[in-house]
Amino acid sequence: MTDARQASPRRAEILAAAADLFARRGFHGTSIGDLGGALGLTGPALYRHFRGKEAVLAEMLVDISERLRDEGVRRAAASDASAALDALLDWHISFALDNPALITVHERELDNVPEPQRHQVRRVQRAYVEEWVAVLRRLRPDEPEPRIRAAVHACFGLLNSTPYSATGLSRPAMAELLHAMGRAALCC
Amino acid sequence: MTDARQASPRRAEILAAAADLFARRGFHGTSIGDLGGALGLTGPALYRHFRGKEAVLAEMLVDISERLRDEGVRRAAASDASAALDALLDWHISFALDNPALITVHERELDNVPEPQRHQVRRVQRAYVEEWVAVLRRLRPDEPEPRIRAAVHACFGLLNSTPYSATGLSRPAMAELLHAMGRAALCC
DNA sequence: GAAGCTTGTTAACGACCGTTAACATCTGAC
DNA sequence: GTCAGATGTTAACGGTCGTTAACAAGCTTC
User: Fold this and answer.
1) Do residue B165 and residue A155 have CB atoms under 8 angstroms apart?
2) Most exposed residue of B1, B13, B93, B95, measured as fewest CB within 10 angstroms of its CB?
3) Gap from A185 CA to C16 C1', in Å?
4) Does the CA dihedral A59-A61-A64-A70 come out positive or negative?
C-alpha cells in the first residue's frame, strides 16, 4: 500500500516538504525526522506513505523529469522551429520560476536516486534534451550536433540559475530576461 | 599548528581529494573516513592537518572565491570595456574547465561552511560579481543595474554548467562555445 | 643517543540516522 | 457495536559518523 504510485494528499504534502528541505540542505543533510517535523509529524510516520527516504527522492525526480519532458514534447511540436524554441524557453522558465526547489533537487540529487528509477530519470531527461536539440537542428541545420547538445546543457544551466539569484527583479522581468538571454545564447 | 593557514603538501592533497569527493557525493555524503581513504590514510589522520571536516570545506571555498576574485579584478581593469568582458569570460571559463570539482563545490556547499568563513566567502563572491557588473555598466550604460546583476548570475549558471555536461566537445571547442554563448547572453 | 616534533595508527566515545516493531486512535462499513 | 483499515505514536535496533585519546614510528637537533 505504501509501495505503488498512489496519489494522496499526505503524499503530496510530504513531497512538497521534501523538495524544500532537499533543495535547502541536500538529501544527505535532511533527516527523516526533519522531514516529518516539517509537517508536524514524527519521522516514522513517513513510512506509512513511502517505503523509505530514497523512495521519496525517487518519486520526486521521476515526477519532475516526466513533467518537463511531457510538456516539452508538446511545445516542440510547433511547426515553426523558431516559435517552438520560444515555447520551450517559456515552458522551462515558467517551471523554474514556479518550482525553484524542484529544479535544484532535479539538478543535484540524481546520484542519490536508487536504481532502477535513476536509470528511468536519466532516460526521460535525455528525451527532454533531445526535444531541444531537434528544434535547434531545424533552426540551425549547419551546426554540428555535439555542439548543439552542449549548448542546450549550457542553456539549462543559465535558466536553472534562477533559484540562487535572489534578485530584485519581478517575476515577469526575470522571465523576460532569461528568455532573451537563453535565446541569444542558443542562436549566437 | 593544525589551525592557521599553513601550506603543506599534505594539506594540498587533502584539499584536492576533498574537492573531488565533495563534488561527486556532496559534503554530507562524504565521510572523514572516505576522505582519508582516498589518500591511503585513516580518517583520524586528517585531524593532524585540519581542525575538522568543516574546516576543510571552509578553506576550500575561501581559496576558490579569492582566486576567482583576484584574477577577476585584474581582468576587469582593461581600459576597453568590451575587451574586459572578453577577458573575464576567458578567465571564468578556463577556471571552470580546469577545476570542475571546485566550481561544483563552490556553487553548492556554501551553506555548510561555518561562520565566520561563510560570511567571508559571500563577501568575496559579491566582490567578484561586482567586477562583472561594473564592466557591463560601462558597456551598456542604459541598462538598469538589477537587471545587469541578474544577468551576471544567469551567465555564471551558464558557464558553471560545464561539470555536468560530459560532452563530446574538445576543451578548446567547449571554451569557444561557452565564450560565444556567454557573450551573446550578456549583450542580448 | 636522548629529546622532541611530526604524522601516522587503533580503540573508543557519544550522537544521530534510517528503519522496524509494538501499540494507540480514529473512521467508516456492515 | 464491532471489526478492519488507515494513520499516527513511542521505544528500540544496528550502523555510521565526527571527533578525541592513547600510543607508535620516524626525523631532526643538540
Assistant:
1) no
2) B1
3) 47
4) negative
Residues of B whose CB is below 8 A from A167: 146, 149-150, 153
Calculate the alpha carbon distances from A108 to A28, A94, B94, B164 in Å.
12, 20, 23, 10
Contacts of A133 in chain B (CB under 8 A): none
Scanning every strand, the nucleotide with its C1' closest to B6's CA turns out to be: C6
pLDDT tens readout for residues B78-102:
999 999 999 999 999 999 999 999 9
Q: Flag if A165 and B178 touch (Cβ within 8 Å).
A: no
From residue A15, alpha-carbon distances to A18, A150, A153, B30 in Å are 5, 31, 27, 25
- Radius of gyration over alpha carbons of chain B, in Å? 18
Radius of gyration of chain A (CA): 18
Count of CA atoms in the C-beta half-sphere (13 A) of B179:
20
- Give me the helices (H) in chain B, please: 9-25, 32-37, 53-76, 81-98, 100-108, 117-139, 145-160, 171-186
d(CA A10, CA A14): 6
Domains and CATH numbers, chain A: 53-187 (1.10.357.10)
Q: What is the pLDDT of residues A139-157, one digit of tens each?
A: 999 999 999 999 999 999 9
Q: Closest approach of chain B CAs to the CA of A33, in angstroms?
A: 16
Q: Rounded to a whole number, what is the largest CA-CA distance in chain B?
A: 58
Total residue length of chain A: 188
Question: Mind listing the pLDDT tens digit for each residue in A1-22?
Answer: 444 457 789 999 999 999 999 9
Q: What pLDDT score was predicted for residue B2?
A: 42
Written as one letter, the residue type at A159 is L
Residue nearest to nucleotide C7 (CA to C1'): B48
